[in-house]
């Protein structure tokens, strides 16, 4: 089993190296970098100490404290994916306070030999009484994983019914939702077993810790497996260039970012195309499809949308669709259309997405907008 932990650690550092070479790193990429670093260090540390883990209670407590990091990293990663934020909010640092406090507590306690005797995670009969503060940190550690898995899964499910759903034609993250659910259940079951061991001395501590680190190892391997299948996770852009690109354009744009006049030129080209051709009326429009129509690489189009328009692809397209809906509501030629009919004519493909997007971008519902118009 030790070899599996080392394999998982190697995979974590390998995927970390791929991410570090990714040219355009978004917020979720930066969070994943630190998350993989944590998982690589945690599994390697446990693999190196597994033989004397049960006989080193103070060291084992420090390693157990590492579990306070897994949940926050998972939740922050999913939050970054679903929110589309570009910068880390400093107030989010509070998610890591329990881990810092636990480690600080252990370091301070190490200066008091008699006090340290009561600090151990396994169930044994010993003269020293288990400190209440240590029990408090163990409880926090136990509930942290299940709570964060639940929060992450809830956040992911909310994105399914949102215009900002992270899965699209160019990248699909639905596997992440399944991974969160499965490992949330497994992780919670193992935590329950560990609690039962600590209180009732059932099962063995090795069974509990091996199970937790085994699940963490499998989690690393599966993240890497699905991440490599989804090109946007570990690299900056799709490996498949739009078919219509000429060799000259491939040479010019293939490995570079747009700067200066080239960025402005592409920005105006996109604006003109959106105004004249109205590609947003296509409900199946995707970033690669629009890039192919514009005869530019997908990553250049993404750069223009992100940097020049200050939004992601979904929001960029939805702004045009909402404006189209507002125009058609006021157009006499569409007076006999229902609001949903106008939405479908404007590129939306579901009622729930239409209502949500319209309210998010205008602050009012489609019917409220229609009712606010002066009657003819």
Overview of the structural elements:
The protein is mainly alpha-helical. It has 2 domains: 2-234, Rhopdopsin 7-helix transmembrane proteins; 247-372, Arc Repressor Mutant, subunit A (Orthogonal Bundle), CATH 1.10.10. The protein is 68% helix and 0% strand. The chain has 18 helices and no strands. It has helices spanning 2-20, 27-49, 57-65, 67-83, 97-109, 113-116, 132-160, 174-200, 205-229, 231-234, 247-253, 260-277, 287-294, 298-308, 313-329, 339-345, 351-362, 366-372. Helix 1 (2-20) packs parallel to helix 9. The N and C termini lie far apart (76 Å).
Topology (SSEs and partners):
Layout: H1 2-20, H2 27-49, H3 57-65, H4 67-83, H5 97-109, H6 113-116, H7 132-160, H8 174-200, H9 205-229, H10 231-234, H11 247-253, H12 260-277, H13 287-294, H14 298-308, H15 313-329, H16 339-345, H17 351-362, H18 366-372
């Amino acid at each position: 089993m030790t070899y599996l932990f080392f394999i998982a650690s190697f995979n974590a550092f390998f995927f970390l190296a791929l991410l570090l070479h990714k040219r355009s790193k978004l917020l979720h990429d930066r969070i994943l970098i630190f998350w993989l670093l944590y998982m690589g260090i945690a599994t390697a540390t446990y693999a190196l100490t597994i033989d004397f883990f049960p006989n080193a209670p103070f060291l084992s407590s420090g390693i157990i404290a590492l579990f306070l990091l897994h949940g926050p990293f998972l939740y922050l990663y999913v939050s970054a994916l679903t929110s589309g934020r570009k910068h880390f909010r400093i107030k989010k640092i509070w998610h890591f306070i329990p881990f810092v406090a636990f480690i600080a507590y252990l370091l301070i306690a190490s200066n008091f030999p008699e006090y340290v005797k009561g600090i151990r995670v396994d169930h044994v009969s010993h003269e020293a009484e288990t400190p209440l503060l240590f029990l408090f940190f163990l409880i926090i550690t136990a509930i942290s994983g299940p709570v964060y898995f639940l929060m992450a899964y809830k956040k992911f499910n909310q994105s399914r019914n949102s215009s900002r759903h992270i899965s699209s034609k160019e990248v699909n993250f639905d596997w992440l939702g399944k991974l969160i659910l499965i490992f949330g259940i497994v992780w919670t079951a193992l935590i329950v077993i560990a609690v039962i061991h600590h209180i009732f001395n059932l099962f063995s501590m090795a069974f509990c810790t091996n199970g937790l680190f085994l699940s963490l190892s499998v989690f690393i391997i599966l993240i890497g497996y699905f991440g490599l299948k989804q090109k946007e996770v570990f690299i900056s852009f799709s490996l498949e260039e739009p078919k219509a690109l000429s060799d000259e354009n491939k040479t010019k744009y293939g490995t570079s970012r747009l700067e200066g006049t080239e960025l402005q030129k592409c920005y105006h080209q996109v604006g003109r195309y959106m105004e004249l051709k109205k590609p947003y009326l296509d409900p199946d429009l995707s970033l690669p499809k629009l890039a192919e129509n514009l005869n530019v690489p997908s990553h250049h189009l993404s750069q223009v949308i992100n940097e020049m328009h200050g939004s992601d692809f979904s929001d960029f397209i939805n702004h045009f669709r909402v404006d189209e809906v507002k125009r058609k509501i006021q157009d006499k030629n569409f007076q006999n259309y229902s609001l949903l009919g106008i939405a479908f004519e404007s590129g939306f493909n579901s009622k729930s997405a239409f209502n949500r997007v319209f309210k998010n971008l205008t602050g009012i519902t489609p019917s409220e907008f229609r009712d606010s118009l002066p009657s003819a």
